[in-house]
């Protein structure tokens, strides 16, 4: 009966993003990843008795910025709430969050196909610490509270995401916006961006939502897509066999590619939210919102359109170049030094990105600066080096940080464009390959490529093909004349 | 919701032993039956004290959680330092290599 139904997938995502502040949300401890355990802690974030939280103004600024970037309604008044639960990584026994009256409501995330996913809300909260459960830890777990009190925004989507691929696109777009606006570095390895998914199925055409499960431990965008695919298939199988979905929280096990039950509804939390008595309401003035609006950095969609129009780039190239804030910035600085945006785009999207990937290079401390890359593009454009040599120079530049002209010289890669020098090499090659010359002259034109190849070999790739080709033709024509005469 | 009712003052709250057990479970407290009986009585007494607030005529008064301060103060986003290394865990019952050591927890 239920076997031949089609089902519609309903996905809602909750994304937690660390804010790029200097300090934690309610105390002056540094907000920094990778410090020795429990070295960035104080009585406030340790939850000692008698301390009071004081809100970080920059965390508020970044939450406002998120509200603007995602086109939310930003509330002039919002309040903080206590979310109560007991876990060793939460020393106070409650997390300060927002429940009723969050800072932002509504909003949207644009998708690549021009559609969008509506948001329910964005609110401010503090992160908890990090617990470790080492294999050899015996009956113990270990807790580091450096992350406790790090400012977060939680972004909650409406349950209008219809497929794992759409969830993936949503996250890519969301991350792009957070990075472009400097709200979060979205570093998933460091836990700066985390995602939970609520997923349910319903018969196509049904309006009421089916029983949902919550999927956690989605540590990468790929994990989100894979985890959702597996969970949707699981739910579909249960429903088709006439079974019922149990409301539960599941953990994604990426290694085993399966979901594992974490807790069922009976064990689910009852957070007993209530207004945080230690923090009066957050009131935002119209002036403050206006100032934030006027300082909002350019958003990815706008930048993509500008790149295509201002630089005359292909739509696709403009989209790839604005795929990350660093890449977009790098490209813009490069074309500030080099006049041909399309040539720059080809090289950046080609050899440059390939090298970054191959050598696993990061943007921080990248020895290839936009000015140095522009220098290399100049040499390439004026024919002083071949495309192949340019790639070698680029690689050396990544290793040494020296400029293109000096590297080209020291690597002996300067292209030979001098007529006289090329002509003498061409003559030597023709003299040394008499049988092939005879074949060419007999009409076998394919041999031409071979002969040019020999010149390139003799010049160790430095002969400028634009100079070699016409000289080769001239010289062969000369020999044809001689042969006839 | 129990907690909200405290803040909304006027709601009459009665606690039975199931409520007490549920709160204990949320707080991960293992209580004996005797303790549950005692705590049910204590909690009921505490909550009934709040009911005194219901005797005040608050018709014309807007709900308010705090006095004096209308909006939360904010501080500049500048590090002011943390406890010296090792000091944070020093008061804990158990720690190892700078980490708090706690009974095994999962998930
Ligand atoms: Zn602190």
Structural summary, described in words:
The complex is a heterodimer of chains A (485) and B (107). By secondary structure, chain A is of the alpha+beta class. In chain A, 40% of the residues lie in helices and 19% in strands. In chain A, the strands form 4 sheets. In chain A, strands 1, 3, 7, 8, 9, 12, 13, 14, 15 and 16 form a 10-stranded mixed sheet that branches. Chain A has a 3-stranded antiparallel sheet with strand order 6-5-17, with no helix packed on it. In chain A, strands 4-18 form a two-stranded antiparallel ribbon. In chain A, helix 5 crosses helix 6 (315-321), helix 9 (370-381) packs antiparallel against helix 10 and helix 12 (419-432) crosses helix 15. Chain A starts with 6 loop residues before the first strand and ends with a helix. Chain B has a domain at 3-53. Chain B has helices at residues 2-8, 17-26, 33-50, 87-90, and strands at residues 74-75, 95-96, 99-103. A two-stranded antiparallel ribbon of chain B has the order 2-3. Chain B has 4 helices and 3 strands. Chain B is mainly α and 107 residues long. The relative contact order of chain B is 0.11. Chains A and B meet through strand 2, helix 1, strand 11, strand 17 and strand 18 of A and helix 1, strand 1 and strand 3 of B. Strand 11 of chain A pairs antiparallel with strand 3 (99-103) of chain B. Bound molecules: zinc ion (ZN). Zinc ion is lined by residues 24, 27, 29, 41-42, 44-45, 149 of chain A.
